[in-house]
Structures
1.
Amino acid sequence: MRDYYEILGVPRNSDQDTIKKAYRKLAMQFHPDKNPGNKEAEDKFKEAASAYEILSNPQKRAQYDTYGHSAFSRGSGGAGGFQGFNDINDIFESFGDIFNDFFGGQQQYRSRGRSGGSTKGSDLRYLMEVSLEEVLTGTEKEISFETEDSCQSCTGTGADPKHGVDTCRTCHGRGQVIRAQGFFQLATTCPDCRGTGQIIKKKCTDCQGKGRVASRRKLKVKIPAGVDTGTRLRVAGEGEGGYAGGSRGDLYVEVRISEHDIFEREGSHLYAETYISYTQALLGAEIEVKTLEGQHTLKVPAGTESGTQLQVPKAGLPSLRSSNRGNIFYIIKIEIPKKLKPEEEEKLREIAEIRGETTAKKKKGIFS
Ligand SMILES: [Zn+2]
Ligand SMILES: [Zn+2]
């Protein structure tokens, strides 16, 4: 694990304000809403939060200054159990306020509201590939994913329902134990019952005492027309199962637009290239081009230069907010033949003469 001061980039004697500012800056930079699907940013985001969790708390900071990371490793007699953040939702639960100022309530991640010991299940993220054709019309897709639910047999307690539970003897049912740490007396989660205050007599056979079971869920998700890479769709109540009767978390479907054979997307407009011949460029033509729905006849005016953009109006995409469609822009490229037919060359030389232009001399075969 990296040094917490180093992670936040602050000197060891920094005051709380400096630490908070440093953390905010990093949290903004690596915020998952700004870096969708970026694992490295997520790791940085977690790392910064872990450092801030310790350094923002004067007591924990004093312990860290004295004992380093070992102050928080399990079973060391330290404050116990803080190994850094693994779940992004925990970060928002702990430091959500810090983000409110910056994201004005726009953030997708929210704290898991706790109420009376029951905890809402974690939110889940699902990455979904969507094609441009699907963006045009909107679609419905069936997805299937692995998640975790509260065990039905033991209602999440982990105890075999026939045998019940005993009060934990280590903490006498309080769920916490007092430990001396240097000058401090610290109340920490009881290591034997993990804070539940109860000891399971016999483990539930369905979940092996974990209170949680893996489950595979299948559901249909409506993808509205106009979505783009980074669009996040919230499917309420389809995340992980809650703890101790808490409600299910939410599912966030994150959209990624798959690459298209022909089109590049820019907002609601689509761009593609098409080739025309030099005669078509000079004389004008009507050419067939592809759209997302089929074909379109594109009028190429006489005297079209390479790089000209010709549009197929309203053949682009709608946006999430409006059904007004963008355009397709075809970027015209002129194909210059590498070899001319003898007859073609002859005609072109005549044209050059009419135009009074000098051209390269006709190549004569040396051996002919
Ligand atoms: Zn169970
Ligand atoms: Zn206990």
2.
Amino acid sequence: MTELKTFETIPDGFWTVPVTGLKDLLGGPSLFYLKGAREPALFVSTLLHGNETTGFEAVRDVLRRHIEAGMPRSLWLFLGNVDAAAEGLRFLPGQADYNRVWPHTPMTGLPEIALMQEVVKRVTAEPLFASVDIHNNTGRNPHYGCINKLETPYLHLAALFSRTTVYFTEPRGVQSIAMADHCPAVTLECGQVGDASAHKHAVDYLEACLRLHHIPDHPIASGDIGLLHTVAVVKVKPGLSIGFDPDDTDISFRQDIDHFNFGRMPSGSVLASVKGEDMPVYVTDENGNDITDSLFDLRNGLLILREDIIPSMATPDARVIRQDCVFYVMEQLGVAHLPA
Ligand SMILES: [Zn+2]
């Protein structure tokens, strides 16, 4: 397996190293334990995707504030794919996606799976306060938290970051699904890399998690959370070229595809122009069923939406579409879904 590096102190050079230099400084995926005034420890992971740097920059700034006087709460920090970070990539060719290989993943036999098992084993040897996994996305999205259990502490942990909260159960290999077995767990989506407001938002959130005495146990007020549920994912079939200029590629998405994120894309909208006669995308619901035909029509070379949807994570980045998806399909969850 990829060897996990462990640290109980901050190495020289950490405070100034660019994210691309972490690989050389640390030697690989790294788990830090920093003892603080209060237990149990908070677990923070970031750089599971090597090009999503807001989490690292934010957690380093939080550490910088506290390292002299001591952390307000003990902290486990996992810096994941520093190899991909060195190249500015989500993951390297030949690597698995570091946020698809955590316990409950349907994948088998990968070195990255053993790595995440080792991380979980170490950080869960003692109770945890909460788990926070920090990401960025591409395209226009609000900052939001994702949870995988509709239970009160999980909802509070997410609402502490943003009113917009996404509940999902697929893909199963993500960090927050694995950690939800052990403690309240959230994935933070901090918008686009380099966004100063995302950095500040993540810093403030981590600071709050370190200082919070306990996660509230009273039922969350329905007005404090706008809960959406991921019901399906839209992907491009393998082997097709993807772009945004109708003359160039097999499938060419509309350039403003990300403007609909967390809003409404109405029935009849044209999503893309398509070369050839075959449906270029496939849509899978959370049970793995193919529901492409209920969502899309292909007419006169145009991919047309058959019903109103709420998309999320749509992006004008062809590489992200290829590596991840075109977008997720969301539905609003009403108050009835909140625990009383
Ligand atoms: Zn990510």
